[in-house]
Amino acid sequence: MPIPWLAAAKIIPWTEVIAAAPGIARGARDLWKRTKARDEAQAAPDTVIDDPVARLAALERCMADLTQEAEQRSELIAQLAEQNERLVATLDRQKRNTQWALGLAIAALLGLAVVLMTA
């Protein structure tokens, strides 16, 4: 089945895929760096904050960081899902075109067989 895959590869909007790839890769890389830095910070021994106000402020900063990271993850997932949706739609269109071409080829073969039998 290399022919349908080759045809599908020709129909895929590679310019859009290539244009979106750096932004998606950059977002994933930044997300990975932040996650790694947070994991390293959590692995370090924590200092005990005795002041309840300072402790609350630290927790609020942590919560804000986690919220921002969750938003960035959801944006990245949305971009990947959108790109995947475009690829699936393109492959579906290619499948329909292939089925249509196969039907035409069968009809042509049947027509040829009829012509050869009557000749």
Mean pLDDT: 81
Cα end-to-end separation:
35 Å
By DSSP, the count of extended strands is: 0
- Described by the principal axes of the CA atoms, the overall outline is rod-shaped
The biggest sheet, with number of strands, parallel, antiparallel or mixed sense and barrel status, is:
none
What structural class do the secondary elements suggest? mainly alpha
Count of structural domains:
1
Beta-strand residue percentage:
under 5%
Low-confidence stretches: none
Q: What's the number of helices?
A: 3
SSE order in H/E notation?
Answer: HHH
Rg, Å, rounded: 28 Å
- Helix residue percentage: over 70%
Q: Oligomeric status of the shown chains?
A: single chain
Commentary on this structure:
The chain has one domain. Helices cover 90% and strands 0% of the residues.
Question: What descriptive keywords fit this protein?
Answer:
mainly alpha, 3 helices, 0% strand, rod-shaped
Write the layout of secondary structure elements.
Elements: H1 2-11, H2 14-43, H3 52-118
What would you say about this model in short?
The chain is mostly helical and 119 residues long.
